[in-house]
Structures are given as C-alpha cells and as structure tokens.
Specification:
With about 180 residues, this protein is of the alpha+beta class. The chain is built from five helices and eight strands, in the order E-E-H-H-E-E-H-E-E-E-H-H-E. The strands form two sheets. A six-stranded mixed beta sheet has the order 5-6-7-4-3-8. Strands 1-2 form a two-stranded antiparallel sheet. Helix 2 packs antiparallel against helix 3 (about 100-120). It is globular. About 30% of the residues are buried.
Length: about 180
C-alpha cells in the first residue's frame, strides 16, 4: 500500500511500529487511529529496526543471559530462550526451564531472580505460581522466565506452542549453544 493508491496513506515503511485502526463513524466518514505499541522502548526499537531493515537475529539481552546462567547454576533442565517479540505484544523473550521437584522449581526461580539482580538488573515486575511451584513465572518486562516442574512442562509443551519463533538453547553452564 502506498501513496499511488491513496495519497492520504503512507507507505508501510513509514508507519514505524504503530497499529493503525480504521473505522467508519455514524455519518459514514472514515477515521484512522494510530496507536503505539505498549511494549518496552528497547524491545520496540529492536523490532522496528528488524522490520524496517530486515536485520538478522539480535544478540541476547545481558539480563536474559544472567537468568539462564542462574537457572543452570541449580541444574535446571533444558534451558531455552524463545524470541517471541515479533509475535507477542507483552514481552520480547521467554526463558523456559524445568526441575525435577517442586522444591527445586522454587529454588531455581529464586536463583534466577538473584542472578538478574547480581548482574545489575531489577527484580521481576511480577511473580506468579510460587504457591504450588509447578509453574513459576517471573516477569522481568523484556523477558519472562517460566520455571516448570518436569511433568507440568511436558503437559503444556510451551516450546511446541511457540515452535515458529527463533530458539536459543543453553548448555548445562547457561552458555548459549550454536
């Protein structure tokens, strides 16, 4: 869509990460509403750059790396980062991991929080699931950490649900693997 079709419309490259809603009012006039993405500024800039420049994969945020290393420090299993930023409006990354019992699930979540804070980050904006400790969610804004009990992870299979997004696996030391 460009100005050749309608001089009032801007080319897509000029829209810059905004949602345009079109509606018709009660007297038949067409109106447009422009709404900026509610995501974090850093995430918005990363996505805008990728959309407009067709950039390749972005480096992992340092606090996400700290979270992955924190999980690995307590032998969390199968640490994976999913780049959901281009398809999900609430965060840029999911970090998914699991543990063999609920005590370890709770401890991994605590260690992830400590590791992010030690790396200079803020604590989570929200924590959910501490009571039963079968699925603890730590929302750090730019990324969300999901710490599962092994059976719960198998049941929900979150990696399958997000199989169409780029994925980064981590080794037992919390280092990204190629």
């Amino acid at each position: 869509i460009g100005s050749a079709m309608d001089p009032r419309l801007k080319p897509l490259s000029q829209l810059r990460c905004a949602t345009i809603s079109t509606a018709t009012n009660s007297i038949g006039q067409r109106t447009e509403t422009r709404k900026e993405s509610p995501r974090s500024e850093r995430g918005k800039l990363r996505r805008c750059s990728a959309m407009n420049n067709h950039a390749g994969p972005q480096p992992l945020p340092p606090m996400l790396l700290a979270a992955a290393r924190g999980a690995a420090d307590l032998q969390a299993r199968d640490v994976v980062a999913l780049d959901v930023g281009d398809v999900l409006g609430i965060t840029d990354w999911f970090v998914v991991t699991s543990a063999s019992n609920t005590r370890q699930v709770r401890r991994v979540a605590e260690q992830v929080e400590e590791a992010v804070k030690s790396a200079g980050g803020d604590g989570p904006l929200r924590v959910e699931g501490l009571e039963d400790a079968t699925w603890i969610l730590l929302d750090f804004g730019l990324f969300v950490v999901h710490v599962f009990y092994d059976e719960t992870r198998s049941f929900y299979d979150i990696e399958r649900l997000w199989s169409d997004v780029p994925k980064v696996r981590f080794d037992q030391d919390g280092i990204p693997t190629p």
